[in-house]
Known about the structure:
Helix content: 40-55%
Strand order of the largest sheet: 6-2-1-7-8-10-9
Number of domains: 2
Number of strands: 10
Structural class: alpha/beta
CATH architecture of the largest domain: 3-Layer(aba) Sandwich
Radius of gyration: 19 Å
Strand content: 15-25%
Shape: globular
Number of helices: 9
Oligomer: single chain
Order of helices and strands: HHHHHEHEHEHEEEEHEEE
Distance between the termini: 61 Å
Amino acid sequence: MIIRYEIGIVETRNVVKAILDTYxxxxxxxxxxxxxxxxxxxxxxxxxxxxDGLINRLTSNKDYFESFLHEITPETTEMFRDPSxxxxxxxxxxxxxxxxxxxxxxxxxASFDSGEELYSLAIILKEAGFLSEVQLYAxxxxxxxxxxxxxGRIDAKELEVNDANYLRFxxxxxxxxxxxxxxxxxxxxxxxxxxxxxxxLNTLYDNAPGGIKLILFRNQMIYYNxxxxxKVLYQLSNSVVPGGYLSIGVKETLENTNSSNKFTVFNDxxxxxxxxxT
Length: 278
């Protein structure tokens, strides 16, 4: 029987301090309970005896830090999660964004996505004939995340739920048109993300891209405390243009944040907001 290692609050803070001091990545305002749980999983997966073993590896091995960032970031796991949101993007938001202009609209998957949100958006754009007519951006916290997304490999165990979500989304094709089976491994059509601009950001979203017309930042704030929510939302609200859209998780809200007065509710069910023009 494997006994799960339990990391204490002081040990957690020591890990966070070591990362901040060594690399400048600030995890101090991540929600403590979920962050502790993920640290425990990292320690177990890598065979560390305790938190000190993790700290020693982190501070002495920069390559391992890249792996740590990839491990500590929750994966999306589902494509077309919350299908009604994707229908709204396709049927209401994209037609508005594509009305014309001198430059291609910029769309940004701003959450630290493991690929599912990005591929979902790319499929919608391809089916609408807009994939080559937009500039796609995707946030990553590590180089390993870029490698994973570009590989197109997803967990075969999620195939059934992905297919069901696509059916509920009511796409134009079959979900099977967008992947193939390679020796039991499901591989998505990587041509969908060939033109994506990957933006490596730290936990505070410094140097975020600007001039964005649609930001997808779903199911990320649940891992933040109020302080970090306000810091990141401030960056995002500055990135999206007036009249542009911000989508967050269906269980999240802009209420009681410092950015709530910058947006109006566009779709309350799907938690889509539109930035005020004045």
